[in-house]
Amino acid sequence: MKPTCREYQAKEYWKLERDPGSSDLLASLVYDSTGSDQTASIYSLRVSQWSGSQWQNKGGIFLSGNLERASLTSATIITDFDNPLTFGYIEPPIIPVITIGNSDTVACRGGAIKVRFSTDTLMFSGE
Known about the structure:
The protein is mostly beta strands. The protein is built from no helices and seven strands. The strands form two sheets. Strands 1-7-3-4 form a four-stranded antiparallel β-sheet, with no helix packed on it. It has a three-stranded antiparallel β-sheet with strand order 2-6-5, with no helix packed on it. It is elongated. The N and C termini lie close together (5 Å).
């Protein structure tokens, strides 16, 4: 995973708290274009955490949403609860591409077909 991102969120920060003895966690953040720095692609979003001297890329998995509102979970476990989290942005964004081979189903206008596929979770991890 790349240790840093190209840019960082300037409007929103999250500070997590936990009860003593509770487990470390993956952090899920919600992107909202009305309160966050706007992005051209949600695929460029990454969870980032301040290390005390610089922002660290914590990656991103379980991405869902659109340019107005999206949810993203860190790809690495958050163990530091003293420093804030925000969104980082990588460029260019990694956009998933799905290639469909031959199909025994004919798609007609107004109809639907099922396409079975899986995604590579590394696609969202910052690699």
